[in-house]
Design brief:
This protein is mainly α. It has one domain. The protein has helices at residues 3-16, 23-36, 68-71, 79-117, 125-172, and strands at 46-47, 73-74. It is elongated, with a radius of gyration of 23 Å. The structure holds zinc ion (ZN). Zinc ion is lined by residues 47, 49-50, 52, 61, 63-64, 66.
Length: 190
Amino acid sequence: MGGTARNKDRELRGIAGYESPYPYLDRLQLKMEERLAHRVPAAGRFCGFCYGRLRESDSECGFCAASIAEAGTVAEIPQDVLRAYKVRQKTESRWVYGGAFAGLVIASLAFVTMVTWGPGPLGHPAAAFAMLIGGGYLLAQLFGPLIGGQAGYRRGARARDAIWARHLAARETPAGNPVAQQDGHPRSPS
Ligand SMILES: [Zn+2]
């Protein structure tokens, strides 16, 4: 993986204020959401470390940079791994919709306040109605995608990373051939 791609990821994560200890999970999120929505076939050839989909020609995983010879391949993504990405997706959308709803509630309360107690032109129903539409839109945007989206991203990513950490621990417990190191990073090809 290139240094530039890595820095870009770091910047993106910095915006929401949470830096995942497993950067490849963010790279996989959209791919896994496609898989969850059944927009891509369930079966295929996946990285044995991170379960990213591989091309035939790959000798190194494009998501986690594991050597395929070392990490091996699997034909399907485990259900608990898919669930981790689903938790991340659902948490974020819950916060976005919840935030947008809160914005609309605030605009509605302001509408009622203006119509009931607004002095002069502020109390005119047309002014209150314009505020309801315009303010409702702005507040829904502010509390939804902007504020809710960030909070949901952080919470969702933490929950996803916790499930992934448990998956890694369970995968590495059986005696035999551990496919990865304990720290959650693929072995670098030697
Ligand atoms: Zn991988």
